[in-house]
Design goal:
Largest sheet: none
Number of helices: 4
Helix content: over 70%
Number of strands: 0
Structural class: mainly alpha
Strand content: under 5%
Order of helices and strands: HHHH
Oligomer: single chain
């Protein structure tokens, strides 16, 4: 088969843009034009075949649409099972909240109250310890004074 050339007139800017885009897509200008020519020729010779393929394709698409639109029994069963599972999970969550979370919350509130009471008792005890320390220091001071007086009295009696 011999190769023949086709010449077309095109302005330079359009040619450069066409070449740049073809190169970016990884094809040559010739490959693109040859593909367009082949498609154009196939349209004339294969138009009846394409029409039958198109109508078959449309029928298949419509059948798929019907399947998607019409819920099947499998979908309904799956949906029912999913709803039952959701109810089961909800019941488990309610049970968990009633049996575990609420009692723990109450216990924690009780512990919190106990800690507050204990803290107040410790603060009160700290105040009493400080008061006792002050009284003890006062007692020590008085005792030292009394011992000094007794020692002085005894010393005077012994000298005297």
């Amino acid at each position: 088969m011999t190769t023949k050339f086709i010449k077309i007139r095109i302005n330079e800017t359009t040619r450069e843009a066409f070449q740049k885009k073809a190169k970016a897509e990884g094809v040559t200008m010739t490959q693109l034009i040859q593909g367009w020519i082949k498609d154009y020729l196939d349209e004339e010779t294969g138009s009846t075949q394409k029409i039958s393929e198109s109508s078959e394709l449309w029928q298949r698409i419509k059948a798929l649409e019907k399947q998607v639109e019409t819920p099947t029994t499998i979908n309904q069963e799956s949906e029912q099972k999913l709803q039952q599972y959701i109810q089961y999970v909800d019941q488990r969550i309610d049970t968990l909240e009633n049996v575990v979370i609420t009692p723990i919350r109450k216990d924690l509130d009780g512990v919190k109250s106990s800690w507050k009471a204990l803290f107040n008792q410790i603060r009160e005890l700290d105040g009493k310890v400080n008061h006792f320390r002050e009284q003890l220091e006062h007692f020590q001071t008085k005792t030292k004074q009394n011992l000094a007086q007794i020692t002085q009295y005894i010393t005077q009696k012994l000298k005297g």
